[in-house]
Every structure is written in structure tokens, then in C-alpha cells.
Amino acid sequence: MSAVTKEPATAVAPQAARDEGILGYLRGYGQKVRGGDMGALPAVLGLLVLCVVFGLARPVFLTAPNFANLLTQAGPVVVIAMGLVFVLLLGEIDLSAGYTSGVCAAVLAIMLTTHGYPWYVGVAAALATGLVIGLLLGFLVAKVGIPSFVVTLAAFLGFQGTVLWLLDEGTNISVRDSVIISLENEYLSPAVGWGLAAVTVLGFAAVQLIQQRNRRRRGLKADLWQVVAFRVIGLAVLVGFAVAILNQERSRNPLFSLKGVPIIVPVVGVLLLLWTFVLRRTAYGRHIYAVGGNKEAARRAGIAVDRIRISAFVICSSMAAVGGVLLASQARSVDPNTGGSNVLLYAVAAAVIGGTSLFGGKGRVLDAVLGGLVITMIINGMGLVGWSSAYKYIATGVVLLLAASVDAFSRRRAAASS
Amino acid sequence: MGTPLLELRGINKSFGPVQVLRDVAFTVQPGEVTALVGDNGAGKSTLVKCIGGIYPIDSGDYLIEGKQVSVHSPRDAAQLGVEIVYQDLALCDNLDIVQNMFLGRERRSGMILDEPTMEQLASETLASLSVRTVKSVRQQVSSLSGGQRQTVAIAKAVLWNSKLVILDEPTAALGVAQTAQVLELVRRLADNGLAVVLISHNMNDVFAVSDRIAALYLGRMAAQVKTTDVTHAQVVELITSGRSGALGLAEEGAAA
């Protein structure tokens, strides 16, 4: 029995037969992973390990209040990382994304608090600032031809100064607008939370079924129904579990209630859907991957490579602007440190840990979410365990290096297996 | 013989003071493989890039199916049904076969990529070329062998109802078995009615698949002959000295 299964797949015909059925699917997945295409696997394993380690060290880590904390804490990093995925897909880097979010947050705070505009004007101004910054960076990289590393390193310093200048050498502007504050500090009512969960799962199931039906109708090889069912049920269990926990009462004070899904969750969810759609289902997204994979091939295929590169920087800086709004909401104020210190490092680490390659051409928006959760768990868990800042910095640096090694390793694996 | 698919007459092309192509004439018949041979620097690549619209020609006539055309960009060439498969393949490793074949010309329904249609067309094209070496059209190109990549690059060129496919040294980097596979594919393209131009340094390949041989010598067309009318040695002579017996360029010393 074992002799049969261990026999190496030398003949071609049995190999084809093995591709059928559930086992074939699993075997195909195993081959993909061994070939260096690990996808979300490292991030998911990381999440599990961190849950076990910190859960054992500090049981409070695995409680409902801390879970809600984690999600709101992860918001800004995840959103900035989503933008970075676009730049990383091209094999470029944006070191200024952190301070871009700082500049945009400062613009928001000045519009809201100093000038008293409504929240939507403030957010529009912040987004416009991000867009202009992205155009500038993209132009310098694509048209002038300066390496993105240098452009954005210069911008990193420049924007740090810009934040100081906008905030009059270091004053702290508080943000009191209730809509902005609610982003990182309010929760959906339990019923709305369940409703959103249902819409998410049903929507996902519908999209999957339509896709598979379309493929069958054309006589193309469709996924096994078991695999589709597994995906849908898996998502349903995950979402249902999360909502059930988040809808528990978290307040220790009987006078006021604290429960529900943080508002940041659907905000991130919508951004995730939007950018995943753009990358996976539109020609523009396809061209981003193409430019990241082989710039010359993309150019010969008639793709306007420069325009694609500039647009990626625009998306990155605009998402940094959204991240800046979230940072302002989280702190309820903007100061010269907003978007500074390790925000950028966390965001890059999030994208890379999630599985986005630093070499370009490989990555998904979902990576930013998974990696952002891993990074936030590490920061949050180490805080609960009571480690000093010194250890936190060192540990975060080590995790980033580990993720980058996994990336480099899987790239070598992929090169060797072809 | 019918109208040639491609006919070039009196093509001149200079880069600054250097004249790379002088009064070049070149014809390609549909359903035939025309081998374009010549030593390094003879002007093969320049000629191909002129045909492909990457370089504008300085003077001369460019006729497709007997009609005078002007080609200023690769897009013009593509619209006329001219596709070039470059030596360095120009495939994206991180995309799958379908994505590569439709790169830059994706099928869409509204805003959304029409993946099923693209996958179907890619499969049909590969099947029409009797390509059986790829397991799935959803395989990433990085997982393919050199011969398979070449196959994908050729299939990509054929996908667009092209009439003329130009292959720039398609077998240069391949092993023996893979070379045979690709040559077989080249032959099949011509048998399907396409006009094929094969650039090669390898005389064995040239004699194995071509119907005609065009030899460039120092920017001039030394001779364009039927493959069955010449020997291996004669072609080598045409490549290295521009003439071989009665064939080729008139001896310059005699003319002077």
C-alpha cells in the first residue's frame, strides 16, 4: 500500500489520472507550495502560532475586547500596506508612504479643526493631497528615471519636514469630527454586523457559483464542487465566528454597553474588494502584473508602461492618505509623529509577510490584510506580555527579515523548479 | 506564382551616417517558410524591425498582398497581420499562458476581463497548432521549458489572425528534442497557410523547414533562392562573401 503511494510519478498517464478528484487537487496544491508558491500559507501559519504563543503567555490576548482592539489597531497599517502592494508589484518601493499618511492626516486636521469644514471636505482634501504626492513620486520615478528607492527616501525626509511645517513646528491638532472619530472608535450594532456577514458570505458564494457555471457552460475545466463548497463554508465559519465574538458584551461597566463589529472592518472590507477587483478582473490590473513581471514584454505588448508605473504610485499615496485619516481617527489628533516612526516599516512588513514579493510581479491585496494582522498581533501581544520598546523593535525587525527570506527563498524555489 | 504576401522593394535604412540596408528586395509567399540568413551585422534584425514597424524605413516600397502600405508602428504592423516573435520571447514569467497570449489585447465584457473566452481561444489556438506539450493553459510561464515557452510565444503571434509570422532565431537556446518540436511547429504554421519568416544561423534548421532562402550580405540582399536549388555550401558562401558562382551580388571589382 505504502509502496504504491510512495512511488515517484515518473509516467505521464498516471500523473494525469492523479489530477482528478479531491486528492488530486490537494496534491496540486502541495506541488505549488513545494515549487515556492506559498501564497497565504506563511501568514496564516504565523497567525495561528502567534495566537497559541501569546494566548498561552497572556490569556487576555485571546479575549473579545483584545480581538476588537487588534482589528482597530491593524486598520491604518493594513490600508497603507494595500497601497504599497501596488508599488511592490512593480518591483518598486515607496519609503515615504508613512509620512505621506502623516501629511494627509495633517491636511485633514487643519481642514476640520482649524477651518471648520465638514468631514467630507477634509477627507477629499486629504485624498487630493495623496493623489498629488503620488503623481509627483510616479513622475520622478517613471519619467525622470530616478530609482524609486531614492525618490521616496528623499520624500520620506521631505514629508517629515512638511508635517512639521503644516503643524507649526510641532503643535498637536485634535480631531473632534464625529464621523472621522467613529472610523476607528465606533462599532456596528450586532444586527448590522450579522447582516453584513450574511451579505459577505452570500455575495462570495454567488460570485463563485456564477464563475464556475460560466466555465462549465464553455466546456472549460471548472473547480470541483467540493473545493468551491469548502471555500464558501470556510469563509462562512470564519466570518460567523468573528462576528459572534465581536458581538459579545465587552464593557466591564454595566452602565454602558460596548459590543459589535468595529466600523473599520467593513471599511477595510470594501477597500479589499475594490482593489482585488481592480487587480484580478480588469485589464489595468493585469497590466500591473505584466509590468512587474517583465517590463520589456509589457512594452512590446503595447502597454503604456510609464502610465502604469505612475498610477501605481498614485494608488499607493492615495491609500496612504486613507491610512492617514484612520491614524487621525485612532489618535483623535494629529501630531508631527503621525505616520512616522515605524508605520511605514509595519506596512511594508505587512505586505511582505502576507506574501507580496519585494521583487515584483507577485502579490495580492489580501496579503496586506493577513500580513497586517500578523504584524499587529506581534505588537499587541508583546505589549501585553510587557516587553520593552527595545525588544519590540528588534522582534519586528526580525519578523520583517524572516518574511523577506521566505520571499527570497520561494523565488529561488520557483526559479529552480522551472 | 500568386501574389506574394509581403513584398519589399528598394528598402534603404540608415542610422546616422551608417547605411544598414541598401536597396533590399525581399518577398515572402503565403504557405511557405522563408529563411532569412546572414552573418552578424548583415542587417537581419534591422530588416525585421523595419517590417515590424519598430524602425521607419528611409525609402522603398512595402507591399502586403500586392497593396502598398505604410507601417509606422508595431500597431500598424499588427493590424496588417504581421507578428514578430523576438529572440528573448517577451513573455511575463509571473503570468499564465492565457494571460501572456492576450497581454495588451485582453478580451473584455464591459470593464471585466472575459477570462472564459480568452481561455477558450487560447486552448483552440494551441490545439490548432497540435501543441500537446503543455498540461494546462493556466500554467504559469515560469514553470515551462524553453521549447514550451517558444511554443507559447509562437501561438501568441498566431492568435491574432496574423498572415505573416517572423521568428527571430526560435531555436537558438533549445536542446535537440525541443528544436525538433519547434521546427515542426514552424512547418505547421506554413502548412496552415501562413507566411513564415525564419531567421536562423543554423543551416540544418534552415534546410529542414524552409522553402526559400534569402541571404543578406552587408546590408544587401545577396540572393533569394529556392531551398531545393542550392546546397549547404552555396548558402554558406552567400552568407560569408555575398556570392556563390552565378548566384549573388555581382563582383564589385568587375563592375568598376
From TrEMBL, chain A:
<feature type="transmembrane region" description="Helical">
    <location>
        <begin position="149"/>
        <end position="167"/>
    </location>
</feature>
<comment type="function">
    <text>Part of the binding-protein-dependent transport system for D-xylose. Probably responsible for the translocation of the substrate across the membrane.</text>
</comment>
<keyword id="KW-1133">Transmembrane helix</keyword>
<feature type="transmembrane region" description="Helical">
    <location>
        <begin position="260"/>
        <end position="279"/>
    </location>
</feature>
<keyword id="KW-1003">Cell membrane</keyword>
<keyword id="KW-0762">Sugar transport</keyword>
<feature type="transmembrane region" description="Helical">
    <location>
        <begin position="310"/>
        <end position="331"/>
    </location>
</feature>
<feature type="transmembrane region" description="Helical">
    <location>
        <begin position="343"/>
        <end position="361"/>
    </location>
</feature>
<keyword id="KW-0997">Cell inner membrane</keyword>
<feature type="transmembrane region" description="Helical">
    <location>
        <begin position="40"/>
        <end position="61"/>
    </location>
</feature>
<feature type="transmembrane region" description="Helical">
    <location>
        <begin position="119"/>
        <end position="142"/>
    </location>
</feature>
<feature type="transmembrane region" description="Helical">
    <location>
        <begin position="97"/>
        <end position="113"/>
    </location>
</feature>
<dbReference type="Pfam" id="PF02653">
    <property type="entry name" value="BPD_transp_2"/>
</dbReference>
<dbReference type="InterPro" id="IPR001851">
    <property type="entry name" value="ABC_transp_permease"/>
</dbReference>
<keyword id="KW-0472">Membrane</keyword>
<dbReference type="GO" id="GO:0022857">
    <property type="term" value="F:transmembrane transporter activity"/>
</dbReference>
<feature type="transmembrane region" description="Helical">
    <location>
        <begin position="187"/>
        <end position="207"/>
    </location>
</feature>
<keyword id="KW-0812">Transmembrane</keyword>
<dbReference type="GO" id="GO:0005886">
    <property type="term" value="C:plasma membrane"/>
</dbReference>
<feature type="transmembrane region" description="Helical">
    <location>
        <begin position="368"/>
        <end position="387"/>
    </location>
</feature>
<keyword id="KW-0813">Transport</keyword>
<feature type="transmembrane region" description="Helical">
    <location>
        <begin position="228"/>
        <end position="248"/>
    </location>
</feature>
TrEMBL record, chain B:
<feature type="domain" description="ABC transporter">
    <location>
        <begin position="6"/>
        <end position="243"/>
    </location>
</feature>
<dbReference type="InterPro" id="IPR027417">
    <property type="entry name" value="P-loop_NTPase"/>
</dbReference>
<keyword id="KW-0067">ATP-binding</keyword>
<keyword id="KW-0547">Nucleotide-binding</keyword>
<dbReference type="InterPro" id="IPR050107">
    <property type="entry name" value="ABC_carbohydrate_import_ATPase"/>
</dbReference>
<dbReference type="GO" id="GO:0005524">
    <property type="term" value="F:ATP binding"/>
</dbReference>
<dbReference type="Pfam" id="PF00005">
    <property type="entry name" value="ABC_tran"/>
</dbReference>
<dbReference type="InterPro" id="IPR003439">
    <property type="entry name" value="ABC_transporter-like_ATP-bd"/>
</dbReference>
<protein>
    <submittedName>
        <fullName>ABC transporter ATP-binding protein</fullName>
    </submittedName>
</protein>
<dbReference type="InterPro" id="IPR003593">
    <property type="entry name" value="AAA+_ATPase"/>
</dbReference>
<dbReference type="GO" id="GO:0016887">
    <property type="term" value="F:ATP hydrolysis activity"/>
</dbReference>
